Amino acid sequence: MGVLEVQSERQRTKSFCGVSHGTLGELFQGPLWRAAEPQIAIVSLPVAKYSWSHFVHDPEQPAGVQLGLAGRSKSARAVRHFLELTGREPLPGRWEFFSELEVGKGMASSTADIVATLRCLFNAHGIPYDQRIVTDVLRGIERADSVFLDEFALYLSGRHEVVRRFGSDVGFSTCYVTEDGAVDTEDLEPALLGHYRRHSTAYADCLDDLVKVFSAGDAPGIARCSSRSAALSQQVVPKESYEELLKHQDEFGADGIFVAHTGTIIGYLFHTRPDRFAMDELSSFFHGLGRQCHFAKGGWGHV
């Protein structure tokens, strides 16, 4: 293809994008009671890893033809719901996707894909971003994480309800591993709700304390609450590495342990970034457990 042909191709098509961060599981997952029934409440731990949705608008394709959605059933449903809610017609073109988030591990990969797709649609159709449309679309597709928010929040994943916002001042450095296997949140729901009923007092105390330390901007306190929530989770979705992490937490100066409560991620929280030597030691420790660790920023505050 010659230079003039390349320029013509670029002029003919126009690319739009939407981006969403994922999570490293949760700082808290437990019950919040509504009408005497427990609902799954979460405080997600956002991570600086992302999903991207790209749409290349090509007016020369037949009207309404959108390529690239095969095998992407939830993104395809998001497109369909978005068009129904906004009264728009599908634009001709093709979709492309890329993600840093592992599937089935607790990184909110599915929700992030949907949110990225919706943000791309707002841009492609020239519609101002409307969080209510995002929530309505998610409600029609799946239980979701709060990746559409740019702050910490207590969120009812099944009801798609933001109960309380905690702001974006707190941040953590994390060192984590992903254990083997995958977890399906929907399949786990009956076991989770039964566990929540049996341990309702412990979860209520943990959540009360979490609200207090978030209000105070107390990152180490938040990490301690995360450790309590992780310990409770160990009784229903156990992590193979948990006991070793607990045993060596003080040695590494970690403020707490976090897990993907319905996933396979487990790791340490630090309110200050580990230096190079600490990173070496942490990597050696996890390698001794047969795992490759990863370092990533969680949340938005400076660490």
List the helices and strands and how they pair.
Blueprint: H1 3-12, E1 14-34, E2 37-57, E3 66-67, H2 73-86, E4 93-99, H3 109-125, H4 131-139, E5 152-156, E6 161-167, E7 171-178, H5 185-198, H6 200-215, H7 219-233, H8 242-252, E8 256-259, E9 265-270, H9 276-288, E10 294-299
Keywords: ATP-binding, Kinase, Nucleotide-binding, Transferase
Protein name: GHMP kinase N-terminal domain-containing protein
Domain GHMP kinase N-terminal: 77-143
Describe this structure in words.
The protein is of the alpha+beta class and 303 residues long. The chain has 2 domains: 15-162, Ribosomal Protein S5, domain 2, CATH 3.30.230; 168-299, GHMP kinase, C-terminal domain (Alpha-Beta Plaits, 2-Layer Sandwich), CATH 3.30.70.890. Helix content is 39%, strand content 29%. The chain has 9 helices and 10 strands. The strands form 2 sheets. Strands 1, 2, 3, 4, 5 and 6 form a 6-stranded mixed sheet that branches. The longest helix is centred in the middle third of the chain and has 17 residues, at 109-125. The radius of gyration is 21 Å and the shape is globular. Residues 1-8 have low confidence and may be disordered. GO terms for molecular function: 4-(cytidine 5'-diphospho)-2-C-methyl-D-erythritol kinase activity; ATP binding. This is GHMP kinase N-terminal domain-containing protein.
